[in-house]
Amino acid sequence: MELDLPTPRFTVGQEIANFLVSCGLLPKVREESFCASNVESFTLNEYEDVAYVTFPSFPSIDDFILNESRCGEGNMHTDHKFFSDFLKGNDDEPAFILPGALNLFLHIMEKTDFQAKIYTDSKQRKLKPIIFVGHSIGGAIATLATLWVLGKRLRQSSPFCITFGCPLVGDERLVEAVGRENWGGNFCHVVSKHDIVPRMLLAPIESIAKPFTTICSYGQGINVPDSLIQDACRTLLNHVLVSPLGPYRPFGTYMLCSSNGAACVENAQTVLEMLRLTTPSQQTSFEEIVQACLLEHRSYGPVLADIMQNSVRRISIMNSEYSEYSDEMGVALQLEAIGVGSQNKSARDALQGACKTEKELNINVNRLVFELSEKQRTMAELEWYKECSEKDGMGYYDAFKILPNKKDVGGADLRRMKLASFWDYVIEMWESHELPSDFQSQNKWINAGNTYRRLVEPLDIAHHYRTNRNGNYLSDGRPNRYKVLQKWLEEKDKTRSSRVPKRRTKRASLTQESCFWAYVEEARKDLESLKQGQLQKLQNLEKFEEDVTKMEKDLTISSDVFFPDSTFMMWWKEWEEYKKNQSPEWNSRLCEMIWKKMGELNLRGSD
């Protein structure tokens, strides 16, 4: 069984920061980035069992942004198959990223030997780390390359991404996907206090392209009138600080640096606030703006020197044992390290808000864990009801549907509603973002939710067809909680796609397809329609027989399905009769399976 790792969120920030500083990795990856500045696509070097894949900055940043403003956003899933389907938002829509960055990445994937080298390296190295590195636009390419490797689920690879002065790469949907997959800890973005590139896409591209290009021209020594530079600076800062946010959002760990040191932040909303708060004010002279924005972006050497000389501090908002005074002290230290000052109320409120949100998320999860443990007794009571029904020679689905007035059925109904209330509450909290972003990918909740779904949904189906025989449960009656829990499992299964599934050797105690009985009920109605001359129903019925054959072959159907008087066997007898009336010699694989299974049940009954 897979074990859940603790949700990293803010805890991983300290580990990454301390690791990067104490082992000297930051200067090493910066050196790799500098050496790759003149290559056309990428470099791959290995030192001390660590592979470094480095991407250059590619075209000048101002040309890139100017071209970007004419492109709009890029769909990760359009016209290529490099990114996994699960890189999409919670609304199932694909994530969008910088089209210029996407085009450069696709060029590397299609026109170079990048893929071959990564596959070969990962097979030869076997679980040794691989670090993707990039400065500026190269950082955006390194981010996409890391997402690609993570999406491929290459078990031999342990990818990590470090960027310097990287622009924002993706929209809110990409942030949701990274959070859902619990990949945030695989990214570290180093951002200097005044570097404008990681901040410029806080505003829409079309609003900042022209002024930014003007400032870059000035920084490159091109003669530009002072008045034009002043207007460009003022316009750029105004859009970054005041304009409505553009579509792009941060994800991963951000190491925010200043001459005082650095602090690691993981909360996306807090990162946004800090990026804005550390943007130079409009009162700053244009000479200082140009110098700070451009020089700090082009040279992270002095920035790293300052970091190495100062202790890296983290945002300590995980431990609820801290006193209010300790929290205040921790926030003040972080603000000093980032360079905004401990008296900055907006920055202080942002960090304290992140602290409060994180604590609330943890409290919510802990409360649900306690309530889930209480619901295990209710689940055990329904298991007992299932076993008792089977001892009486009737599956619990049919007992619940046919014998509604029986005492134990009434108890099962109360337990069904009690569990429904709990899981409706869980889904409501998740949809309201009151739980961690990776909650739905945690094995504990996937296993608990889908055990509940497989045990209890048959009772909901029985209740539906008992009270509304002509209704269709699948299209009209299925509660949202079951759809969501099933989706969580399916999304998790995609992450296991690189593993060969083990063949089941023992029959499932619960039918794995929780909607099985709804398919049976609809098949019964289709058979009646077929007998009345609606020949189009024949295809549905043959498909259902094929599906059941596969389920039985895979041992994913529980034994109560084949009890002689079950709803399924009632359908089967009518279906078999119909088929033999059409062709007396008719036989099928499922027919053989059912006779074999009934023989096993008869032998068991005689014992």
Would you give an account of this structure?
The chain has 607 residues and is α/β, with parallel strands linked by helices. It contains 24 helices and twelve strands. The strands form three sheets. An eight-stranded mixed beta sheet has the order 1-2-5-6-8-10-11-12, with helices on both faces. It has a two-stranded antiparallel ribbon with strand order 3-4. Strands 7-9 form a two-stranded antiparallel ribbon. β10 and β11 form a beta hairpin. α15 packs antiparallel against α17 and α18 packs parallel to α21. The longest helix is centred in the middle third of the chain and has 47 residues. The chain starts with 10 loop residues before the first helix and ends with a helix. The relative contact order is 0.07.
* Fraction of residues in H or I helices: 55-70%
Q: What are the low-pLDDT stretches, counting only 5+ consecutive residues below 50?
A: 1-15, 312-325
Distance between the termini: 35 Å
The main pleated sheet reads as: 8 strands, mixed
Shape: elongated
Sequence of strands across the biggest β-sheet: 1-2-5-6-8-10-11-12
SS elements, strand count: 12
Structural class: alpha/beta
Our Rg estimate from Cα atoms comes to 30 Å
Short description:
The protein has 607 residues and is an alpha/beta fold.
List its traits:
alpha/beta, eight-stranded mixed beta sheet, two-stranded antiparallel ribbon, 59% helix
Lay out the secondary structure:
Blueprint: H1 11-22, H2 25-35, E1 43-47, E2 50-55, H3 61-68, E3 74-75, E4 96-97, H4 99-111, H5 114-125, E5 129-135, H6 137-152, E6 158-164, E7 170-171, H7 172-181, E8 187-192, H8 197-200, H9 205-219, H10 226-242, E9 248-249, E10 253-258, E11 261-265, H11 268-277, H12 286-298, H13 301-309, E12 312-314, H14 324-338, H15 345-391, H16 396-402, H17 407-431, H18 443-467, H19 473-477, H20 480-495, H21 516-531, H22 537-553, H23 567-582, H24 589-606
